[in-house]
Amino acid sequence: MALQEHPASAVAADLHSHSTVSDGLLTPSEVVARAAGRGVELYALTDHDEVSGLAEAESAARALRLPFVHGVEVSVTWASTTVHVLGLGIDPDHRPLRRALAQVRSGRTERARQMAEGLATAGIDDAYEGALRFVRNPELISRTHFARHLVETGVCYDVRDVFRRFLVAGKPGYVPHRWADLPEAVDWIGAAGGVAVLAHPGRYRVGELKLHELVREFKEAGGTAIEVVTSNHTPDQVRRFARMAEEMELEASRGSDFHGPDEAENVELGVVPALPRGLVPVWHRFL
Ligand code: AMP
Ligand code: MN
Ligand code: MN
Ligand code: MN
Predict the structure, then answer these.
(1) Pocket of ligand 1, candidates 47, 128, 139, 143: which has the most ligand atoms within 8 Å of its Cβ, to mutate?
(2) Cβ(75) to ligand 1 under 6 A?
(3) How far apart are CA 228 and CA 199, in angstroms?
(4) What is the pTM of this model?
(5) What are the pLDDT digits (tens) for 125-135?
(6) What confidence score (pLDDT) does residue 5 get?
(7) By the number of CB atoms within 10 A of the CB, which of 3, 55, 272, 284 ranks highest?
(8) Other beta carbons less than 10 A from residue 132's beta carbon
């Protein structure tokens, strides 16, 4: 029997992207306008550990009649690995969520200073000040801002190159950090009226068994969906995570993880493949 296509699948949803409120290059209004201009029909802004861009994004979306979903991407530490959990459909004014996110953000400045110290040992001076020039939200300095600085100063030829050489485990600018716990992040999202989505599972450098364990714990904690389609997934990974969503009875999400024009090859708002058939698109909840 042919697999049924869920009616919501036809909607061009892009439920993962960033603005200047975290490590994106466009303001919330600009990113919304770009999404609308590229044919996105249902759009979520999901800044890292921040909801302060959502009010601006929502009014920009309303003016353009673009259906909008309030989102956030929470940084989580699970079994010593950093994983990201999207909260979709959250109430951005929910006080406990705002407090929890402020707590998650709070270690970033000290971490950034330590990253700069690490980079100094590799002969790169004043990286903290350099990175800050790219930061628009003082509470949210990220590795991406360091990467842009090292590209601009010619140390590396692109952002990927910076990560590979300087910003991942074992490299001089890498500082291990403890983010939120998985169950608490899922709880915050649920308490704020949203659903939790495990972001870009193909990005985690863990083996098959560990990944299954992660998805199982995510589901047990109350997680709703996994991001099956994202710009960074290969066609094989899309198939693999589609199967995983079905097996684990999780819904499926889709998002570009757009950070800015020309920031990364093949990453653009609305430019993401369709969900494989047979899955339940998490966005049926927002239509
Ligand atoms: P942070 O939250 O400070 O650890 O920064 C994480 C962000 O760095 C991610 O959201 C991506 O935007 C970016 N990032 C992580 N790994 C890479 C990579 N290999 N290439 C490019 N950007 C990356
Ligand atoms: Mn990012
Ligand atoms: Mn992410
Ligand atoms: Mn993201």
Answers:
(1) 143
(2) yes
(3) 8
(4) 0.98
(5) 999 999 999 99
(6) 87
(7) 272
(8) 17
